[in-house]
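Dear colleague,

Following up on Tuesday's group meeting, I ran the structure prediction for the two-component complex that the binding team flagged. I've pasted the input sequences exactly as they went in, so you can double-check that nothing got truncated or mislabelled along the way. The structure tokens for the whole assembly follow below. Feel free to forward this to whoever is handling the docking comparison.

Inputs:
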Amino acid sequence: VAERPVVPAETAAPDVAPVQPRFDLNAGSPDLTAFPRPAWLSALRRALREAPAEALGYADPRGRVELRRALAGYLARARGVHAAPDRILVCSGFTHGVQLLGLTLRRRGARSFATEAYGHFVHHQAVAASGLDVPVVAVDEHGALTELLDGEDAVLLTPAHQFPLGGSLAPRRRLHAVEWARETGGLLVEDDYDGEFRYDRQPLGAMQALAPEHVVYAGTASKSLAPGLRLGWLVLPGDRYDEAVAARELMGGPSTLEQLALADFIESGAYDRQIRRRRIAYRNRRDALVAALAREVPGARVTGIEAGLHAVVELPGGVSEDEVVERAAARGVVVQALSEYHHGGPARPPALVVGYGTPPDHAFSGAVARLCAALAT
Amino acid sequence: VAERPVVPAETAAPDVAPVQPRFDLNAGSPDLTAFPRPAWLSALRRALREAPAEALGYADPRGRVELRRALAGYLARARGVHAAPDRILVCSGFTHGVQLLGLTLRRRGARSFATEAYGHFVHHQAVAASGLDVPVVAVDEHGALTELLDGEDAVLLTPAHQFPLGGSLAPRRRLHAVEWARETGGLLVEDDYDGEFRYDRQPLGAMQALAPEHVVYAGTASKSLAPGLRLGWLVLPGDRYDEAVAARELMGGPSTLEQLALADFIESGAYDRQIRRRRIAYRNRRDALVAALAREVPGARVTGIEAGLHAVVELPGGVSEDEVVERAAARGVVVQALSEYHHGGPARPPALVVGYGTPPDHAFSGAVARLCAALAT
């Protein structure tokens, strides 16, 4: 007689039972344990001590001038952006910025705002929520096929590091995009979410510098610091600025104290230090991931440039995404299938999107080992 | 021969030349110099020290549960709101909440979202920006004429203290509004922007308690603390909650650290202390304003209940709003004409909206004296 109680098959084996994700390899987040809490508290303290009373009042919808000045300097220096304080709009992270742009375009009479065929679903949703059509532009290992742009009113691109595929937008395609914008009056939106994190060479400057009057440059503190701060910024063409400010006035925005803290954080050099430290850390993680995969899962292939906080890992032949995601889950690893980011057009080969930036240091090597085991099984 | 240089007439007399507003009586702002900086810094410090790493990640679009719990307790206790953490949505101030509700209604197929005939222009704009018609509901000294509600999909009301006219929504009209909502499925949006500040009696509880499944209750830290924090909250009917959360996910929201700081601020009792202190201060200011007007400008009449941070001052016979606003400006006082808040329907008698909550303590009596002089001239 069996002594063990009868349990349903799907919970019988402890390693396939649903467990709390101990190893988070979701893409899109930095290592939150590396947030510089003491330095941020100092910046907040100074902001709170030095802010004039009016800074606590109804906020300038453009964002605090102190922050716009600090960003203009930083973006010119670090990303080659043509930026001036009176072209910068501070927003509550990039998705907020996308919806703001969508609503602004809609009010102008625009009908479509294209996104890359692979990308964050939430950006796709934000565009759709503003009432615009969202056609998709195919992407490959060299970024979006901008030569296919046609009658769209705007297009969202990730030139520095296509999300999630990982390519850098080829120079020829950058020029195509700019020509398209000049000829049609279409708007290019450059999502530079992780432009500071390039490991193999100096980062390419922002595409915006090629045509500041046709590109909205978008940056964020979500990867460099933490998404919970909800701090992002847009650099807009002159003739799009006022309407975006008007839309922003109705759409909320970040606390002025947090804005002043970020201004202080940038001006004091703490922002550069944080990025330098994190660049080294993420680069080491990427190298470790690539080495482990080469050793343990020879059939897998890491694609994309050496940059950012995530890598695309093409699966060994004959293995499905669902299968690997499930096997990883059984080992306590949460990781996403590439197809979760697919919005239309031709599909890429089966792959995982591995957010190596996400786990805390102490969990990183365990996460990689378990991921390799799930891939190798 | 004249020794003085010839100057254009409009700048010749120093008292009519445009001067920097030294005395700000604009309505809608608390006294920003009374923001409790040390207590807020303590709350931020604790939030930053105690927040788990995940709190720095992509934010729960509902808002941090710590804050939703603190608000549920506070709102039930202080405003009689039927609130539970899973019905509360944290947003970036009230205008953000209005646009969020507007977009949500629009997605449901709604066509119109009425506002009171007198109100904040920015709320009117936020509704219109979501693509809805914005009919207006007439208001008098007893609040909105809710008996006139008809086929609107939603209506924005200020039941505790009509903004800016200053009446409290009459009990009969509250019932009318609730009946209308029950019969038509229309949504009542209760903007409780200054419900804590009533001076002549215990504040009336929120209208929301009469029909929690038909009312969205909206509150804000903008009057109790500071608008610069950009912290507000909605309490939603069960069947409207999920769609509002989905919209909020695309629309930005406040920093999780600020949310945790406010949760701490409420739970520690600091929020109640701040409100008690400010209630006394604003009450004294209101009394001083009313007394000065009775003494200096007998023809003027202060209308509305004894509440809030502003008063409506009906002008002595034969004086126009523009005239008084200009005379006040010449004395360094910025104050708004009632007609600036008028969106349609029958107009009220000429009046000023006097934001007695706005100036710092040291400027208050000077502002009142100059206002009286401008009115008495």
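Chain B touches chain A through 51 residues (CB under 8 Å).

Cheers,
M.
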